[in-house]
């Protein structure tokens, strides 16, 4: 789909009404000798005819670069490719609709594309390849349906959510990337038409929130004030905006909440004050920037901080420790925790009033609820207070595989000395091999320094509960969409003497072997406890473990 002739180049322009020819006369335009003659013009101008583009010297990973380049050639007209597919290892094809003025641009470019990675791609065009009846795909209707599906008017604050737009499954084979200015402009204008109020009640509830995150936007360009709506929130997280001046097109709106983190422009400022000042030049009414309340210093109101860290020197150490902790926690087997808990460590778990039945079933499978206010049998009070790394890690291994994301966690450094610290961390998490909704956890860890510049946990208090109502407005899609790459791979480094001692004790506990043979198995496994256990089990089942190993 591409621009129409005449003064309008928008996606919702009126198409000239003309009967499509029953029989097409395809004309092939080759990159080897590109030229426009009468037959090319006639084939290009057939109404509702698909043209086929044949690309050479391409690789599978070049798709987006190729389509972006060809769309940009057509600007300010709109060109929408559909049904892109690899025909061979080096040849790809796609379909689109366009007229002779666009074809002339391709010819002027000698029907070749120079991609951003430096590669040159050549292409042929088979004009009038298919009729619309033969390949019935209404691009305008598909894009309109996607916009409708992403428009929420259920709450008082209407929201137009265009995040990850080009990857929407409803688009199917239609390629519609918002990071290209002409596409961005046309999608906003189409949105105005698609979600226009259909009654007076809707007209009184203007759109307040525009979500544009994760679209690789490098600019924000639109040719007119496309919305009569009163925006107060714009979410531009995780795009490629490199300078604050690029925000100017939205400066005429009375924005009170703005999200910019994940853009290169955030690294242009040496202090938070400079960053806030630069943004407020364009949005003087701003109250919330990247989740932080701003503009309250002059009112002598305490500033809200996501993390409370009294000892600023410790912040990097605390974050590094917690990243390591949750990377280990989210592994398939929490046996990797060996060495992280002190020999005298204590652990207890409590469970809140879980309301979801599916969550209750999971909790029942592993939880030991040491809630002192609910104990009937106080003998359990001591039983559920676990002592030592062996018992703690065994308990942690019973919990199903989880997924935590540091960006969603709140961290408070409660106490700090030269050789210890106490940290409180809370946030949402999911059991990644289930379909249950996210849950909430809080954890208080007391950590002490050991030899070899290592740190160990001496006290771990773990609480699991429902997610708080305030989390309803937080986008947790990154947490809910679990892939094979969601959990960072854990690569253990060389162990300290204390860690090796704990691994040795654990292997003895599991196998009942003596010191000598336990150490032998660990050394042969490069101190990989899982490999050592695996080797032991294989040899034990085949009677290849000598009897002196148990003496």
From TrEMBL:
Chain segments annotated as coiled-coil in the UniProt record: none
SMART domains in the record: TAP_C (SM00804)
Residue ranges constituting the TAP-C domain according to the UniProt record: 498-551
Cellular component aspect of the GO annotation: nucleus
Compartments where located: Nucleus
Cross-referenced Pfam families: LRR_NXF1-5, NXF_NTF2, TAP_C
Start and end residues of each NTF2 domain: 317-464
Keywords associated with the record: Leucine-rich repeat, mRNA transport, Nucleus, Repeat, Transport
GO molecular function, one term: RNA binding
GO terms of biological process kind: poly(A)+ mRNA export from nucleus
Family assignment from sequence similarity: Belongs to the NXF family.
Protein name: Uncharacterized protein
Organism in which the protein naturally occurs: Nasonia vitripennis
Gene: 100677806
